[in-house]
Amino acid sequence: MIFGYRVEDQVEKHGLWRNFDGTWNPVFDQLSEGLSRSLPMEDSELYREGGKQWFSAAPSKETLKHWFSLTDVLELQKLGYKVYEFQLVGTKQISDFEIVFTRDNIVEQREIDYKEIWND
Questions:
Q1: Which of 2, 17, 26, 69 could be 41's S-S partner, Cβ–Cβ 3.0 to 4.6 Å?
Q2: Rounded to 5, what percent of the chain is helix, strand, coil?
């Protein structure tokens, strides 16, 4: 079983680059720092492989700190975003900093307090 960490708005079904349906909707434009604004999250077949929607996640809590600053997370929380830990199966490793999964890959998820990660 693999763990993945992601910041998303599960109520409105928004990620940071795309909505859950795959529509491009970068939220970083609304953030004062936007630490991951320059990450290469362009549209790719990778995110629609097999006719499914694939979602990006950090493979560790420490990696998520490279994606988002504390300021980013606090601003995102005001916009309705939360930090989640997922237990996953069937993921794909894209790089040392990214795994992808489908919603069918989620075994369990829990919302985690941002202080579990950004505790400095």
A1: 17
A2: 30, 30, 40
pTM of this prediction?
A: 0.89
| Residue 64: count of CB within 10 angstroms of its CB | 24
Specify the pLDDT at position 39.
64
d(CA 46, CA 120): 35
For residue 115, pLDDT beyond 80: yes
Percentage of the chain surpassing pLDDT 90? Answer: 58
24 touches 43 (CB < 8 A): yes
Element (H, E) at 8: strand 2-8
Give the mean model confidence (pLDDT) for residues 77-84: 96
What CA–CA distance (Å, rounded) separates 107 from 89? 7
Neighbours of 30 (CB within 10 A): 11
| Spatial contact of 96 and 48, defined as CB atoms under 8 Å apart | no
